[in-house]
Amino acid sequence: MTEHPGFGAMLAWLLDHRELGAQELADRAELDADAVRSVLAGDSPGEELLRRLAPALGFHAVDLFILAGLAVPDDMAPLDTAAATWVKDAVTDAVRLPSAGRRELRQLIRSLPQEERRAGFAPKPLMPLPGGPGARVIRMLQHRNLNWSGMAMTLAFVTPTYLSAATYGAIGSDRKELTPRLVTDFSALLGIDALDLAALTGVTLHDVPPPPTRAAVDTAALLWEARRLSAEQARHVSERAHSMRGDFRERTS
């Protein structure tokens, strides 16, 4: 099992990779530089600091909470755990559409009314509960409303990675190594630069990876947008994505 290096160490890796100093980061985040330095020295980050650091680093705040090993606040979590099945189906249909179709689906998601949260977000726990790099990445994917089956299907359609659903559970519990190939492919779905994710997970990429495909970029955006959907709304989007595939096939036949 890989020991969690601490958020400060991961932040230091990232700043070193970006050639960014503590003072410059503090200025971007409108924070006191001593607060940033104390986190880099090993102090646990607070919620307000993480919320401020996220846009300064170009990250979603939810990912920083996961990297810090903290509970994700409700306002950052997906709305409905039960939406995962429909989100998986929607994105695997969407990736087989042209870019215009994926844009249409994003517009549909944005047009749906915001429903109230009825329960806390409760993704499947990782067993055992380690703090290794695999666990952090899998939790990020879970907070894109992807369960293990969703990860398996979506990665298989969008990237060269083809693994069983159970394998993602093994990665999350540090029973399977987080390889450079996996970091590169996971980064595409998370919308995180592959070199940044490598720095944060301590995985060495021996070659500079190619940029993600247009389909991968669009899929990452769809996953992020779909976090606000209820299960019923996600079902509606999924059905629309499936019907659009038929529409586009008819247009091109």
Concise summary:
With 253 residues, the chain is mostly helical. The chain folds into 2 domains: 7-73, 434 Repressor (Amino-terminal Domain) (Orthogonal Bundle); 81-252, no CATH class. The chain contains 14 helices and no strands.
Describe this protein's structure.
The protein has 14 helices and no strands. With 253 residues, it is an all-alpha fold. Helix 7 (99-111) packs antiparallel against helix 14, helix 9 packs across helix 10 (165-172) and helix 11 crosses helix 12 (194-201).
Shape: globular
Fraction of residues in helix: 55-70%
The description of the largest β-sheet is: none
Q: What's the gyration radius in Å? A: 18 Å
Distance between the termini: 52 Å
Order of helices and strands: HHHHHHHHHHHHHH
Uncertain runs are none
Sheet/helix structural class: mainly alpha
Number of strands: 0
In the residues, how many domains can be counted? 2
Number of helices: 14
